[in-house]
Design a protein that fits this description.
The complex is a heterodimer of chains A (338) and B (301). Chain A is mainly α and 338 residues long. Chain A contains 12 helices and no strands. In chain A, helix 2 crosses helix 5, helix 4 packs antiparallel against helix 8 and helix 4 crosses helix 9. Chain A starts with a helix and ends with a helix. Chain B contains 11 helices and no strands. The longest helix of chain B is centred in the last third of the chain and has 52 residues. Classes of the chains: A mainly alpha (338), B mainly alpha (301). Chain B: It is found in: Membrane. Chain B: Its main location: membrane.
């Protein structure tokens, strides 16, 4: 148990840092994704806005969902939420705490994507290039251009190679203007997020510290209990399997001894553990039969109590008749040959 | 217990170094953020000042708030400040000490950003190029007032066609760069002298009170950590007991329903102790179903 205790202590003390680590990795991944992404503004009047805003808003949504998917605690939350009440009441404050802490961590990568996108400026430049104030920045008196034409020319601002409106408004001027707006928005967004995080973190001790301590304790408890239960079930399954297999081999060996009319060959006293581990199966034919039987006819998931040293051997009424009878049929067949 | 003692010693000795480490990381992050940020002055008369000063002052505020958020001790201090007195009086000197140490650490990254910005010069050139006196520079002397504002605003943008060939563009740029760097170095010098004096003169003033405040602020921090560790340990033991009780109650229920004699432990395999009397598929299924549909009450008395 000591080994398990150490492992659980590790998980408990490091669960927060583990989740923070995943959070940080996702934020870095989001920056990396942005720099690896090949942004290609379509430079067409109606497509620019859709493309620019799509790149700005769709990946954060995906990253947010991914943040929930990668968080192991989501299944714990769902299980606690949906379980029937039974003998243990449900505390909505605990559920709220679990959900809030997961949502806060999942918000970081999307916020990083939006900040990086805004500070870089390409998306806003692409999305809003048709809304540049030509009167103030450029030459609005440029003649013979209808509204649609102006829109078409402005839409090409992000694509320097095909831009043909240098007389209308200089490309660098427009790009610098849009970039400035985008970066201002980006810094304001980061400031807003940081202020919100600061307020959430610092107002909590002022208002509901006792309730917070309670929710945190019980949410950790639910997590630990689930892990311990899984471990206990795994231990149980291991013991179950061990006894089941041991009983299978014992059953095989007993039936084969009975079939051949040999006295059970007693291993010499000094043969020790190795002879015991052979479980009475000591030649190729027997082993092959055991293996075949394991494949063709697996024993039922039902352990019978250990045989007592008296004659008939079954103390309880739980003897599995099917398990014992099949090999017995083979015994009868063998005898009939003789 | 030895393991706990080792862990607590680690926490105690390293609380200060962990916070200093975070402080240093934030300062490095601030330099990295500045170098990777693509500064592009709008070069428009009304926007330059707002952009330049915005880049100089908004990120420091963000870094300051980040410094407060990432510092664990700020939460500890807030809790200590807001808790009801109960059986333990509150010592304002301790809270003041904690507050000042948190603020000092949180100020490092913003100051680093401002100094790096000033030493680099781009922000100040962008913000104040429009406020230069055109008479001082030959290239702007004979230009009309409206145009001169436009031209001056374009000084930070070297490649703009209007300013590219202007002879005084570099002069204005160098002038502002010089002022910016002078300001940056002066601020750095003043801060370092102030820190030096504060550290040297501190032992002359009220050293005993300082030692007390530091001791009790460390104590509050450690006490908080140990409380959290104890709660974790307790919840683990609670869960362990709860699950054992559950398995035992399932075993009793199964024996009650099947009327079999209670199984004897002797003569069983060592592994059978762990089976808790649950020895076939239906029993296991029933146990798992009961665990979901009827979790046991939180009561291990």
């Amino acid at each position: 148990m000591d080994k398990f205790r150490m492992i659980f202590q590790f998980f408990q003390s490091n669960q927060e840092s583990f989740m923070n680590g995943i959070c940080g990795i996702m934020a870095l991944a989001s920056t990396q994704m942005y720099s690896a992404f090949d942004f290609n503004c379509p430079c067409l009047p109606h497509y620019n806005l859709a493309y620019g805003l799509g790149i700005l808003l769709l990946p954060p949504f995906i990253l947010f969902l991914l943040g929930f998917v990668l968080n192991n605690n989501i299944s714990m939350l769902a299980e606690e939420w949906r379980r029937p009440q039974g003998q243990r009441g449900k505390d909505p404050a605990v559920l709220r705490y679990m959900f809030c802490s997961m949502a806060q961590r999942a918000m970081i990568a999307p916020a990083v994507w939006v900040s990086v996108t805004l500070l870089d400026g390409k998306c806003i430049t692409c999305a809003f290039c048709t809304s540049v104030p030509v009167e103030t920045l450029g030459n609005a008196s440029h003649p013979h251009l209808s509204q649609g034409e102006i829109q078409r020319v402005l839409a090409r601002i992000p694509c320097k190679e095909i831009y043909d409106g240098q007389q209308l408004i200089a490309n660098e001027v427009a790009v610098r203007y849009l970039r400035c707006i985008s970066q201002a928005l980006g810094w304001c967004f980061v400031l807003l997020m940081t202020t919100l995080a600061f307020l959430v973190r610092s107002l909590r001790p002022c208002f509901s510290q006792a309730a917070f301590l309670k929710s945190r304790y019980w949410s950790h408890y639910i997590d630990i209990e689930r892990k311990l239960f899984d471990e206990t079930c795994a231990e149980h399954a291991k013991s179950f399997a061990k006894v089941c297999i041991q009983q299978f081999f014992e059953g095989m060996s007993t039936d084969l001894v009975a079939a051949r009319c040999h006295l059970p060959r007693k291993a010499p006293a000094d043969a020790g553990e190795a002879a015991e581990k052979l479980l009475g199966i000591t030649d190729q034919g027997t082993m092959n039969m055991a293996l075949k039987s394991w494949h063709r006819c697996k024993p039922p998931l039902h352990l019978h109590p250990p045989a007592l040293p008296t004659g008939n051997g079954w103390a309880g009424d739980r003897q599995p008749p099917t398990h014992a009878s099949a090999p017995r049929k083979e015994t009868a067949a063998y005898y009939s040959w003789v | 217990m030895d393991r706990f003692r080792m862990m607590f010693q680690y926490f105690q000795s390293n609380s200060e170094s962990v916070m200093n480490g975070i402080c240093g990381l934030l300062a490095l992050a601030s330099v990295k953020m500045y170098t990777s940020f693509d500064f592009s002055c709008p070069c428009l008369p009304q926007y330059n000042m707002a952009y330049g000063l915005g880049i100089m002052f908004v990120p420091p505020i963000i870094l300051f708030l980040c410094g407060l958020i990432l510092n664990r001790q700020s939460l500890v201090m807030l809790e200590e400040w807001r808790r009801p007195p109960g059986h333990r009086k509150k010592d304002l000197a301790v809270i003041r000490y904690m507050c000042s140490s948190i603020m000092q650490r949180a100020m490092v990254a913003p100051v680093v950003w401002i100094i790096v910005t000033l030493l680099d010069g781009k922000c100040l050139i962008c913000a104040f190029s429009g406020s230069m006196d055109p008479e001082k520079f030959v290239g702007f002397a004979n230009v009309s007032t409206v145009q001169v504002q436009q031209l001056l605003a374009k000084v930070p943008c070297k490649d703009d066609e209007l300013i590219r060939n202007n002879t005084s563009r570099k002069a204005v740029s160098r002038y502002l760069h010089c002022w910016s760097q002078a300001l940056g170095w002066s601020i750095l010098l003043i801060l370092i002298i102030a820190a030096f004096i504060a550290r040297w003169l501190r032992p002359c003033f009220n050293q005993a009170a300082l030692l007390q405040a530091r001791h009790w602020s460390n104590y509050i921090d450690i006490e908080q950590k140990i409380f959290e560790e104890t709660c974790c340990e307790h919840s683990r033991l609670f869960a362990h007991k709860c699950i054992l009780h559950f398995f035992e109650s399932m075993q009793q229920e199964i024996q009650l329903h099947s009327f079999s004699s209670p199984r004897e432990g002797e003569g069983a395999e060592g592994g059978e102790d762990l089976l808790q009397g649950i020895t076939d598929q239906d029993q296991v299924n029933k146990l798992l179903k009961t665990w979901y549909y009827e979790k046991p009450p939180l009561d291990v008395s």
